[in-house]
């Protein structure tokens, strides 16, 4: 064979080989990935291989990076997940080529922790806690919204000395006559971030969404947790009832909203409010005459948060204290309510700080009620700031301020106004206008020591009937 032809053949073979190699090594790009299962239930100590579907299935580079959202709950190595503790972890897979992602939720239960994704699982968890005997601390983690149409109350039965934590930013709703929660003696329940949403059935319904009763019965609402009725109609159920020395704690940004009466305390019930709000509750039935908080022989301590925008449709109060109840206010605000605070039957309100502002009226004292103001402010209320209604009613002002009322700073029909310190200014009038002060039979006792009253329009003190005791006080008008 001539040398020239031989060379041509060799070159052609080389070209064919190069072309063939080029075709065989061409990359197939990955277009996406997904898990075969997006939710897996496991027990502590178990392992599972998570299977990924790659699209297309002949992609050249099928390498995956794996990440767990909580390595204390579950770890992931080369697609093998290991369950370490009860809870929820999300496994995220990312393709090395293209950065495509997919996720799988790992749900791990234990004897004391229940991850709840449905109403059936919720009922299983509640029944397990109710009928348990050896475990005293439980966690319920809600990972889906779910709704009940049943008629049972959710209660932990006769169990005592138990603590139950309910968490998850989801909604548990109940369209029935039962309680959303019924907490009994020595049962401590904490709800974090969960919305407890009740509905009003047409008949055979409970008046209360949540009931806390008995010594050691405790409910704490924390985070974004809330107890509500839906905003669809005039509310017909109360929010939280606390009695027989039960305790209710409202913290962070938690709330009670859209009920007929936010909180009812009686027979030694206690309410501790450090944050959140009791708001937008409505006395829509036009019969109970209060919509925010009612305290009957109970105790309310407020260090933060707000009681706001509560409404009644007939004459009434947004906070009613009666029968020797005590309200200590150290901070927070009571504001924008269509109503005010009523003290009757030897009830006592001690104000150490915070503000009472922009309400229809602020404080009404009658039937041996007592309001003592050590600090804080009462301001910009539409009608009288403080009304002292009858004999035996007492308003004692040690410090703080009363200002901006569109009517009278301190309105007296009868009773005692003892002003030791503080300041009253910028109201339409300081103490009752003259035409109301000359009411026949009115008995007024005003004591003032070292107090300044400024700029309220006219010197009305000479019109006071009864006795006036004062030393070293100043009255100044523009």
Structure explained in plain terms:
There is one protein chain. Helices cover 8% and strands 46% of the residues. Among the domains are: 32-109, Immunoglobulin-like, CATH 2.60.40; 111-259. The protein is mainly β and 478 residues long. It has 3 helices and 51 strands. Strand 6 (74-77) and strand 7 form a beta hairpin. The chain starts with a helix and ends with a strand.
Q: Any descriptors?
A:
478 residues; mainly beta; Immunoglobulin-like; 15-stranded parallel beta sheet; 14-stranded parallel beta sheet; 46% strand; disordered C terminus
Topology:
Blueprint: H1 3-24, E1 32-35, E2 39-43, E3 47-49, E4 52-55, E5 64-68, E6 74-77, E7 80-83, E8 87-95, E9 101-109, E10 113-116, H2 119-131, E11 137-142, E12 146-148, E13 162-167, E14 171-174, E15 181-183, E16 187-192, E17 195-198, E18 208-213, E19 218-222, E20 226-228, E21 238-243, E22 247-250, E23 255-257, E24 263-266, E25 270-273, E26 277-279, E27 282-283, E28 290-296, E29 299-302, E30 306-308, E31 311-312, E32 317-322, E33 326-329, E34 333-335, E35 341-343, E36 348-351, E37 355-357, E38 363-365, E39 370-373, E40 377-379, E41 386-388, E42 394-397, E43 401-403, E44 408-412, E45 414-419, E46 423-425, E47 429-431, H3 434-437, E48 443-449, E49 452-454, E50 466-471, E51 474-476
Parallel strand pairs: 2-9, 10-11, 11-13, 12-14, 13-16, 14-17, 15-18, 16-19, 17-20, 18-21, 19-22, 20-23, 21-24, 22-25, 23-26, 24-28, 25-29, 26-30, 27-31, 28-32, 29-33, 30-34, 32-35, 33-36, 34-37, 35-38, 36-39, 37-40, 38-41, 39-42, 40-43, 41-44, 42-45, 43-46, 44-47, 45-48, 46-49, 48-50, 49-51
Antiparallel strand pairs: 1-4, 3-7, 5-8, 6-7, 8-9
